[in-house]
Amino acid sequence: MDRLWAEDLRGLVASVGPVTIAAPELARVEDIQGWGPVTDSVSKSDGFEFLGLPIYRSRADMTFGLRVRSALRPAVMNSDLVHSSNLFPPYTALWFGHDLAVQLRKKTLFVVAEDFYDMLNWEWVRTEKNVLQKLRRRRDLNLLDREVRKRVANASLSFLHTPAAVARYREFAANAVQIRQPVHESADVIDPEDFQAKCAEMRRNAPLRLISASRMESLKGIDFIIRAVSILKQRNIPVHAKLYGKGSNLESLKLLTQKQDVTGSVEFPGTVEPGPPLRQAIAGAHVFLMPHLTTDFGRAFFDAMAGGLPVIAFRSVASQDTVRHQVDGLITPNADAEGLADGIAQFHKDREFLIRAAEAARERALLNTKSMWNNLRAQMIRELF
Q1: What do you get for the CA distance between the two ends of the chain, in Å?
Q2: The domain containing residue 44 runs over which residues?
């Protein structure tokens, strides 16, 4: 499965005990489709049992929902807690597990794991060229939104994993809390000696090393980084940006660096794996940039802080409720290359402010760890019983 999901599930087992995973049973690992760039495996030795569910083949598979219900019914009836989340079509049949648990008056935990509404509106609805297909997608997205509202309303407990999910669903939820779970432990935070060496380098007014890590898609706003670097070049402020990731916009972004005459200041190193490789790449930089144009929330906020980096982000629900402006980062106007350049220039000109922000980011990373959140989630789940 997706590595981030595996991390969350291991934390759940460590917190509350054995878990049964009900999921489509795929024949090949190549068939896995996840959000992250890396997959991982969990097994019975990790405290998991597995319930294989039928695979959705096509719209012509009229028996899919019935087969899902048949598989889930005995599992739900034998469970103490049913844990489910927002699902995209056609997998909404899996919500049967949650709905049956509610009918049986069992404890339920519902998770909204990302700001799917804004993200899908941007990438799935907005980009559709066919008018009728676009209307159908918008209808399906609004239906999904309504179905999520129903389930947070009757769940025993809802975990809202992004600030945007809180803004969208908190008023409908019977009992909900925001979860801001990173994937690092305190031992993964940049060590004091390396951090002090980096602070000394920043005090010497070395050109700022900027970094971002994301999919190279339009909603991530990477083109605004390139334009901001160009603006800084015109102001005689030297910087160097490493933009990690791949995606459909990669080649057009490389072309933009040529047009903006910043090929010597902007680098595209490709993808970087989560874990030690990503932490090493981040720790070698000075400032992390997240110019996302939507309200999607990335754990990269916390990956950056674990590397001792302040974050500069475009203003959104996600960033405003995560980055502490003028404390461990800066919030700049959305979709504004000049505003992003101004934020970078502020750190360039006031190195003591930059170092204070870096120290605050690192201190926050030491307190905001994966195990801390696992313990908090476990405490709230146990309180249900």
Answers
A1: 29
A2: 3-182+370-383
For 193, the enclosing helix (H) or strand (E) is: helix 192-203
Q: Are residues 227 and 360 in the same domain?
A: yes
Q: Do residue 212 and residue 359 come from a single domain?
A: yes
- The DSSP H or E segment spanning 51 is strand 48-53
Number of H helices, E strands in the chain: 15, 12
| Residue type for position 381 | I
CB atoms within 10 A of CB 82: 24
Residues whose CB falls within 8 Å of the CB of residue 352, separated by 6 or more in sequence, listed in order: 203
Q: Give the count of domains, the chain.
A: 2
Q: Whole-prediction pTM value?
A: 0.88
C-alpha 47/C-alpha 278 separation (Å) is 28
CATH number at residue 345: 3.40.50.2000
Candidates 303, 312, 283, 286; CA nearest to 192 is 283
CA 48, CA 66: separation in Å to the nearest integer?
A: 25
In order along the chain (385 residues), what is the average pLDDT of each group of 10 residues? Answer: 79 84 79 66 90 86 91 94 88 91 96 86 92 95 95 96 90 92 91 96 96 93 98 98 95 98 97 88 96 81 94 92 94 97 98 98 94 88 88
**Short-list 239, 219, 221, CA closest to 229:** 239
My answer on whether 93 and 133 are in the same domain is yes
